[in-house]
Amino acid sequence: MEISEEIKEQKKYIEKIKEINQEKDRFYHILTMGCQLNENDSEKLCGMLEKMGYKKTEKQSQADIVLFNTCCVRENAEERLFGKVGELKNLKEEKGIIIAIGGCMMQEKHITDKIKQSYPFVDILFGTHTLHKFPENLYKALKEKKKQEDIIDIEGEIYEGLPIKRDSKFKASVTIMNGCNNFCSYCIVPYVRGRERSRKPKDIINEIKELAKQGYKEITLLGQNVNSYLRVEREKNIPFEEYEEVNSFATLLYAINKIDGIERIRFVSPHPKDFTDDVIQAIAKCDKVCKLVHLPLQAGNSKVLKEMNRKYTKEQYLELVEKMKKTIPNLTLSTDIIVGFPGETDEEFEDTLDVVKKVNYEQVYMFIYSRRVGTPGDKMENQIPEEIKHKRFDKLKSLVESQIAQNNKKYIGTKQKILVEGTSKNNENMLTGRTDSNKVVVFEGEKELIGTMQEVEIISEHMWYLKGETKGTVFKCLTEIVAK
Ligand code: 5AD
Ligand code: SF4
């Protein structure tokens, strides 16, 4: 079936379930694991469920449907999921709730086998390529009381036009591509998300224009390999429709930068090898593109990087950093690092610490290597003992924390433009937002500032946030100026 026909079909199922739920109070509870792409998928699942007449509840015991959107990038998520599913057995028996599990972990056969065997009361299993068919699977589970398993191995097409319920009114995530062709040897993503597929420029631009109309200020472009947007199409001469001159990641940034109302553009997660000169230039030239760039290092030693199949050496990575620092004024960097990849020696690990010292990251996401079934890394013989991995992790963590503490000091006395996102979790009278460099800033202010851009002077720094002060200067955002 054509994908647009498929979506029409699913909308019919949404209507059918809505009829079943008419005049009844029905609730769903959702747990999302993993990355921002999964969160964005969950926003689509929530959008479909709300159109079917379900309301969201944070209380599992109140729910008629419990839904897990899973991640499999690291090991601990599996135990967590099994624990959570086990907890639902009583609720299933007492209330006959529907239990659905979807997402990346469902693309792994050893996991679905285990669920079917140990938790046979689960109603729906769906994978990463069949999320859009959730209404049909739910309808069949409700009506026919039959278990649904809808998992396919081949990558599905990109579907457009699903309902979506976004978590924020000011910040929106927009998935621009799916899948990964890189096969880093530790990573399960290429196996569960399939090959790279990019959305059409027109669909992306129109979605962001619509978001701008609705008052969204910050857009985060998402993709497993976000800066290789349209790369496969260009390399293999696969025809695609250009729209507003968009034919690459760089040209997409320029086009979004022109959209009135949008104030900030972020993107995750890129690969260093796709930071081509045109992309670096675009980041420098587009005033709305945040100057915090995520540049996943993974490891600092060239031999380990080769084993990881990362396609760059330590020197090439550092050259790229230098080039970006020279070209992009006020650049700050964040990164991902894995410690304890198979065969990594203490000396090789020192190279990771060396790169961290040289680059001076604003933020480092640190991971302990986790064996993933089906990846080349899992088959490597020289696995590192857990206690050594933990020692390295602690060493890296203390270096990173000392750098962050040092870096935070440079903010004091500076004026930062922030998007005010809400009230502080710890103090209702304080507002919170983020700088261009993604630092959390807490400051006193009226609630009406929520959703606006503000200039805040930083007065003190704490490990994970900065404290600021406004001088009452309201930053008129572009939309307000245009409205007048
Ligand atoms: N073990 C540990 N960390 C991993 N990551 C991906 N796969 C693994 C693994 N097997 C980390 C990488 C990636 C981030 C999203 O998760 O650093 O950039
Ligand atoms: Fe995984 Fe590497 Fe692809 Fe990122 S680029 S999703 S780390 S395989």
Protein model, in words:
The chain is α/β, with parallel strands linked by helices and 484 residues long. It has three domains: 148 residues, Rossmann fold (3-Layer(aba) Sandwich), CATH 3.40.50.12160; 239 residues, tm_1862 like domain (pyruvate-formate lyase- activating enzyme), CATH 3.80.30.20; 69 residues, Nucleic acid-binding proteins (OB fold (Dihydrolipoamide Acetyltransferase, E2P), Beta Barrel), CATH 2.40.50. It has 17 helices and 19 strands. The strands form five sheets. It has a six-stranded parallel sheet with strand order 2-1-3-4-5-6, with helices on both faces. Strand 15 and strand 16 form a beta hairpin. The longest helix is centred in the last third of the chain and has 24 residues. Bound molecules: 5'-deoxyadenosine and iron/sulfur cluster (SF4).
In short:
The protein is α/β, with parallel strands linked by helices.
